[in-house]
Amino acid sequence: MATASGADRYRMVVGTQSPAGAGTVTPDLSQGCVWPIQMPAGNVTIANPLNAMAGDHLTLVITQDGVGARTITWGSAYKKNVTLSVTAAARDTITFRYDGTNWNQVSSTLLLT
Length: 113
Known about the structure:
By secondary structure, the chain is mainly β. It has one domain (6-112). 0% of the residues lie in helices and 36% in strands. It contains no helices and eight strands. The chain has strands at residues 24-25, 34-38, 44-46, 57-63, 72-74, 78-79, 90-98, 103-112. Strands 2-4-7-8-6 form a five-stranded mixed beta sheet, with no helix packed on it. A hairpin with a 4-residue loop joins strand 7 (90-98) and strand 8.
């Protein structure tokens, strides 16, 4: 698949990612830069993104399930200082910027549903 460029890179991924418990989500920037993730009945891994270019932004919209307290294991390129909300159905939005090597957290917001 060809890598998106220009404005196409700054779109939301169609559909919410719903990995299996103990599953992995690998954001692919050729598909978009906003990735909604519904936490399953278990914890997940968010792997280092694919098809990134220096200067790209990645926004993860992470929603806890009806139980809450799910955790994420982050890929090695994520440089962050974030603790996910543990409340059932809580939604966290975390934005990263890629410097060509690492994904550096630039913001995070808690939005209750």
